[in-house]
Amino acid sequence: MVMGVKRRCRTVSVLRQVLTCAICIIALVALLSVHVQDITKLPSDASYKLPTQKDMGYQKLRRERSWTQEYSPPHLSEDPPNAHKLNGANGSLDSEKLWKPPPNRDYVPCVAPSSSYASPPESRGYLLVDANGGLNQMRAGICDMVAVARIINATLVIPELDKRSLWQDSSNFSNVFDEDHFISSLANDVKIIRKLPMELTTATRGVKHFRSWSGIDYYQEEIASLWEEYQVIRAAKSDSRLANNNLPPDIQKLRCRACYEALQFAPRIEAMGKLLVDRMRSYGRYIALHLRFEKDMLAFSGCTHNLSLEEAEELKSIRENTTWWKVKDIDPVEQRAKGYCPLTPKEVGIFLGALGFPSSTPLYIASGEIYGGESRMDDLQSRYPLLMNKEKLASVEELQPFINHASQMAALDYIVSVESDIFIPTYSGNMARAVEGHRRFMGHRKTILPDSPCPSF
């Protein structure tokens, strides 16, 4: 009986071993068959060898390229991505998010004077101002001079606008700005008059180039001391004369009141600007592009990317013959590598497509004449057919009062840009900063800055 049991146990044990061996053999044969199948796909003269470090690096590079091809912006020849979805690291970004204004983070306009702010003290003399530069450079300078007049207890005479710059604009202050509103809205801050009193028109004037980026001490001491010799002080330039920091809060608030409340455009410019806005709105939500690809900007910055040799020489000649531009010898390749050049129209189209804006998006071009003419706009026009500007939105008759007046034409662009759903400057300049600041003041309207490490949505 016992012997029979032992015999059956040995039999079971042997069977288990046989089955285990059979399973192992089947698995091994399966693996070898796959391997042999892969090898048979190689050419008959191929010899197998272990991958080198170089081969492994190449395989890694292929994987990285595969990833970047999947997630990189579309190629130049491709159409912009679907308007309703933009694939990225954080998933999909629908069209509504593209247009959505940024949160205000509880920041609100701060222009109301403090309780200790008093009416302007008795004037010690008159301040004449020669505003220099283009529209937005003059605008910022005038706001600075309003604050300076308050600091040195001066009566401000309506500033003279620049008539000698590249644009050769003959416009006076009242042609561009609402003079009556400017005077009345600042009555509690600074006394402003239209002209110097007749008896002082021939008086000796203290002509001064106010030092750039100067604080309140400079004006209270060095400039105010000129009243001991002169009744009239003339500021030969207005741009960048006042420091941005370490000024009393009420002086900073005064600058804001001057810039965003007092310095309104002349009524006919405001009316024409609002008409252009209404016509852009008829196409739907629109983007205002400050496309700074203009002759003066390219000549000043020395940027010649994608230009012909003849065009590059023309820009170089303009720069060399403009006496007040200090830098003459510029390496255009180095300039572009450092990010000091405006985006080309073609690059703007690529940028907008990469963000996810569809080809049906209305674009307003806020700029002067694009260097190279309409042909340089062809690529952007092919990507975004709804490409508008002043000349396309308004008739020749409607624009006639503003033509040949660069500051007035720029004012129209300013209004359409401030009122746009999205503002995108292609170069950080005076208008880009002025419009961006104005849009923040009016409720944090959306601005996208292409030159930021991460575009500010």
TrEMBL record:
Location(s), subcellular: Membrane
GO biological process per UniProt: fucose metabolic process
Lineage summary: Eukaryota, Viridiplantae, Streptophyta, Embryophyta, Tracheophyta
Topological category with respect to the lipid bilayer: Single-pass type II membrane protein
GO MF terms held by the record: glycosyltransferase activity
Recorded family membership: Belongs to the glycosyltransferase GT106 family.
Official protein name in the record: O-fucosyltransferase family protein
One Gene Ontology cellular component annotation held by this UniProt entry: membrane
Transmembrane regions: none
